[in-house]
Amino acid sequence: MCIVAIAWQLFDELPLVLLSNRDEFFQRPTKSLHQWSDQPIYAGRDEKSGGTWLGIHQQPLAEAEAAGEHSTVYQQNGRWAAVLNFRDGVQANSQERSRGELVTHFLTSALSPMAFARQIDLQQYAGFNLIVGDAGQAVMVNNRGHAPTPLYAGLHVISNGQPEERWFKTERLRARLRQEVLPLIAEDPTPEYWQPAAFAVLSDSTLATATELPDTGIDKAIEHALSSIYIRTGEPRAKDGKNLLSNYGTRTQSILTLWRVLDAKPSTVDISACLISRET
After folding, report:
1. What is the pTM (predicted TM-score) of this model?
2. CATH classification (class only), 2-166+239-279
3. By CB count within 10 A, which of 6, 222, 245, 266 is most buried?
C-alpha cells in the first residue's frame, strides 16, 4: 500500500511537486532508482514483475565532456506516472497483469495522458489508482469506478481508496503539506530549501484512532497498523505481543518535480523532470 501527494500547477517554476511513500513486503525483490538500460525510463524497479510504482521518461543520448570529465546527456519529454494498489479486500490473482506495467507503458507511449487512461483494459488488472501526466495535463483513473479525470490545479492526496475518500493518513498528509511544505516552496522553490521538510512529513508515523479507520475489508488491527503516512515495520503489536507487520512497511520515499526552465531564447520555456528517492 502507498500514498502519493501531488501539488499540481500551484507554482510557476514547479508545475508538479509529487511526494510518494512506497509500502511493500521486504522480501519482494526491488532495484532502487536508476536509469533503465532496456527502456527510456528513470525509476525504481520491481524485479519480480518488471514494472515500477513511480517513474519518469528519460533516456541517455550521448557522452558529453564537461570540466574535463565525461558525463551522460539525457533526454526527457516531461512524462511521469505513479500507481497505487486499491485496498478493498479483493485479492489479486495470478491471471491479472502487473499494475507496474501501467506506469512503464505510459512512460514509453506517445499517447496523451487522457488518451492513455481511456484505452486501458481495466479488467486485466487487480485494483489500482493510476496517475499519469506530462507538463500540461495530469489524469487520474482507477478500475473501481473512477473514470479518467483531469486533475484540477491544487493539492491532491491519494492512497489505496477512492480519490475523494478522506482517510486519516491522506488528511494528515494534506494538512501537514499545506502548513509545513507548500509555504516553503512558495518562498523559495530551490530543492535544498523545502525538500528536508517534505521528507520529514513523509516520515510521519502517527497512527489513527479506532474511530478514524476506514473500512476496506481487512482485519481492523492490520488496518490500524497501515493507517499512518509512514508505516513502521513490526509496529504496532497485537495483544499477544506478535508483530502485525513483521516483514512489511515503507520501503522508499520519493520526490518528483517538473521544473520550468528558461531557454537561451527569450520567452522559450523547457521542462526538466527531477526524481529523487531514499530507501528506508
Report:
1. 0.93
2. alpha beta
3. 6
